[in-house]
Amino acid sequence: MPDVTDFLNQFSDPRAENKVTYPLSSLLFMSICSVCSGAETWGQIITWSETHKAWLNNYVDMSQGIPSYSTIRRLFTLIKPADFQLLLRGIVDSHHPVRKPEDHVAIDGKTLRGSHCHAKIVTAMQMVSAFSVENRLTLSEVKTNSKSNEITAIPVLLALLELEGATVSIDAIGCNDTVINAILAQDADYIVGLKRNQPSLYQAVLNYASEKGNKINTLVSDSFDDGHGRCIRRRYFTFALPDSICAKGPAKLKTCVAVESIVSQQHSPKVNANWRYYITDHDASHPGLPGYVRKH
């Protein structure tokens, strides 16, 4: 099995040769180890490395000492994110060669906490990530310029993944032909949220669910979640959609998953209920549908 340092030594150094003081493998190793230990800023990377310098020296050359935080920051401004992503993926794959097959991959957009700067008028960084539910591992991430650009970033993210046989779950922002066709092109399945951003399809599904879908014979899961001062009852209904509705939706659309959440708060007599809807190319009899929604 290749050692972590073997991968680091093979990584291309983006720095000018006449300006190199610290070995690249040393800077990368201390950065990766410190972040895995909880460091979230350049300064915290340096603090952790100074504390663990003797341990680091067992694996990489630390004879030049610990650099300043600005040295680490400059290095990572030169490294291409895609190259660094491949490096990390190679390390993970080499040390965890046997993983559970991807059954559920959740795609979601996140705002990186602390990435904004009011003084320099820098907005917070937006990322779209793919998370393996089975392996509890982020498979890949793509940076977007704004929240609205997630629609264009998701197909780019999907192209980085191997999704054959998996089910991909996405919020309502992924309910469009571009995203869903990208999923189907990899022989994967989809389950996406349905909201008013698809008004015609949403209203048709809502009407059908109210009239024929949300019935006792389509109830597949009924569970309670008690904690944080509230009790939530979640009821999952799965039912096939008629061809007239499927024709209005994305390719291979077959089924709707309707979720009723009934919420009661401690020390309050009020009980609130709301409905959420998801569409999928799975058959209504698929046993994993409630789990795909709940674990997203």
TrEMBL record:
Lineage summary: Bacteria, Pseudomonadati, Pseudomonadota, Gammaproteobacteria, Enterobacterales
Domain H repeat-associated protein N-terminal: residue ranges: 6-88
NCBIfam families, per the entry: transpos_ISAs1
Domain Transposase IS4-like: 101-213
One Pfam family it belongs to: DDE_Tnp_1
InterPro entries in the cross-refs: ISAs1_transpos, Transposase_11, Transposase_11-like, YbfD_N
Annotated source species: Candidatus Regiella insecticola
GO molecular function, one term: transposase activity
Family membership: Belongs to the transposase 11 family.
Example GO biological process: DNA transposition
Domain of life: Bacteria
Identification of the protein by name: Transposase IS4 family protein
Transmembrane regions listed in the UniProt entry: none
